[in-house]
Structures are given as C-alpha cells and as structure tokens.
Sequence to fold (424 residues):
Amino acid sequence: MNDEHPASLAGRRIVVGVSGSIAAYKAVLVVRRLLEAGAIVDVAMTPAAAAFVTPLTFASLTHRPVVSDVLALDGDQQIAHIELAEAADAILLAPATANLLAELAAGLVPDAVTAIACASRAPVLVAPAMDAGMWTHPATQRNVAALRDYGYIVIEPEVGELASGLTGIGRLADPVHIVEAVERRFARSGDLEGVRVVVSAGGTREPIDPVRFIGNRSSGKMGAAIAEAARDRGASVTLVAGSMSVTPPRGVTVVEATTAAAMREAIIGAAPHADILVMAAAVADFAPVRPAKRKIKRDGSALNVELVPNPDIVAEVGEMPEDVRPFLIGFAAESDDLEANATGKLRDKGLDLIVGNVIGGPFDAIGSDENKVTVFGVEGPLTDWPMLPKRQVAERLWDLIVDRYRKARDGESPAPRGGRRSGG
Fold:
C-alpha cells in the first residue's frame, strides 16, 4: 500500500464496478486495499462477473450489499444504481473488459456497472484487462480514446503473462498500482494546478526536396502521454508537436513544428513563459544545407547531400538567465553507455533531469506503446522502473518532476544552474 498519502481515501465512497474477466479475482484484492486505506466501498457487478467471483465474496469484505441488477431497489426503496451513482466520490471499473469499454464509449447501459458509470458525475477510473490482440485492436483503442475524451482516467494494462498463455500487453494493472491511481485522483490530481508546462514531442523532418526528408522513427507517443498526464494534473499545457503518429491530446495548446528550425522558434518563444519544459521530441541532429526546390530526379548517379548541424535547442534553453529559464527535463536515447551519455548531456546542457532509454534490443521503445526509462539527476540515477505502458511512465515521471520542481523552486534540491524562478 502506498504510504505517501495514507489518509487520502479515508471516508471516501468508492464504487468498484467488476466486469466479466478472468482478472475479476484481482478485484477482490483491490477492494481489500481500498478498505485498508479507509474508503467506504460499494461493489457493482455485471452478470458475467458473477461467473468468476460470487457477489457474496464482495459483500463479505465490504459488509454492504452488492448491486448486480440494474432494476434493483435499495433498503429505502430507491433505485440502487442511481443512489450509488449520486453518492460516489469516485467510480473504479476493474477489471474492464473490451466489451465494457465499447458499451461505455457508445453510451450503452445494459447492466448496473455501465448504468452507474453513465449516471454519475463522479470521476471514473477504468482499469482494462483483456488479451493483447483485443487491447491493440483499433476498435478498442478508438473506444479508449473516446473514454479519455469523456474525461475517464484510464489505468493502462500491463505487459505480462495473459490467461491465453501468451505474453503481451493487456494484463490488469497490479492492484497496488490501481489503488495508487485512485489515491492520486484525490491527493495529486491538482499538483500541477497553475503550473505552465511546455512539452515537445515527435520527430523532426528536415527536407531534402519537396517530397523527401531526413528524419527519425519517433512516434511522439511518449511526449503525448506526458502532455496528457500534465493536463490531467491541472497544468496549462502547450504541446510543441513535430511529426507524430498519434493524435495530440485534447485540452492542450498544440503548436506544430515539424522541422528543427520551427521547433527551435516555438520552444525559444515559449520557454521564458513556462515553469516546466519537457523536451521529449527527437530533434534531428543534422539538416541538408540547401534543400532542392524541385523534386530530385533519379538518374542512376550517386546523390551527395551536404549536412549541417541543427541548433541544440535544449542547450539554448539551459543557457537562459535564471529568472526566465524553466525547470528543464531532457531525453536521451542511447544505444550504449546510457548512464555516462545521459549524465554527460545533463551536465553539459544545464538540465535539471534527464530521461534515458536504450534503443535497440529488447527494450527499444521507439514507436512502441511501452517504454523502459531511467531518470537521472545531478547525483546519478534516480529510478529503477520496469518496462511500462507510456502513460504509466508519464505518471511516474510527473510524480518525480513535481517533487524535484518544488524543491528546486524552494532552493532545497541539487540544481546544475543554481536557483529557480518562483512560478507555479
């Protein structure tokens, strides 16, 4: 159990909705942990969920009746699911099957669980669990995106062994992490309130001619997840978007910058007005000296393209005067010597933190939905996280960034360039 905010759930009324997944047995552990944290827990179940875990199990734990019939009345002859929807401080759907996600996205309410979620004004947290193929299916991802647009908080599934015997993404998040996400909703949901955050994401494309370019494989997924998580914590977010394979999250200001020059202009303009800058974009190191104005025709001869270094945007921000320089986080994708290269960049570019990941091999995250990162400060590595979905990485990053930002702002933590502005 997370002890950082031990009283954050005390007295909170949490409705746990359980759907028909083999992971339903883990909902018992989730309910127990919520009760241990001091929450008042009511459980609603779909008919299929009762085939995996009996209502009596949850009733024995919570000492409260379980709602499984959308037409059921409570002891005061009120419609039970409406009473729970109105009284809930938060609704947690764990596990949430692909079918449940589809019903919620479409606004269908065939059972007590979906009826409670749709009728309530309380925040809804969704912890999906399903086979990897179901989770990655375009329809499921579309439904998840719709739920996020509705304001639902999605607790990403984890990578691990699935009921099918295969290994992949789709496993229900660990009960400890699920309860921590509920705690964050009450204890940390506003920890970036009033803070101005700028995030860069995606790759840049440096034109060779009107149709060809020099670029990289960056998808922008990590930067988008970081921007989205900051938005959900109350920050005012600007996303400087390079070439991305994902749609930028709603509720953030998007500035398109697909070349290094455009990204530099956007970042240098935004940085003095930001409290925190996260440079997650993969800016191309080189660009053609003279891009051709017309498409270069292939004639069988070799083509020589003269390249020049692109501006080092993060280093420029690191050199800004202390009264306008934001708290600065960089990224380092390295094929070898991660710690030496990442800490060298942190020191040379005047960063407060740097997020490092290894490219190539089993942990290559470029274009993937998961990432394995190590965060470094001036004192060395600060984390030892496993491979995680990128949204979970983003949440953990913000936990760390917020703590370090506040301490740096108050002059309490190591900082490569001394004091910090007092924004936020």
Summary: Residues 390-409 form the longest helix (20 residues).
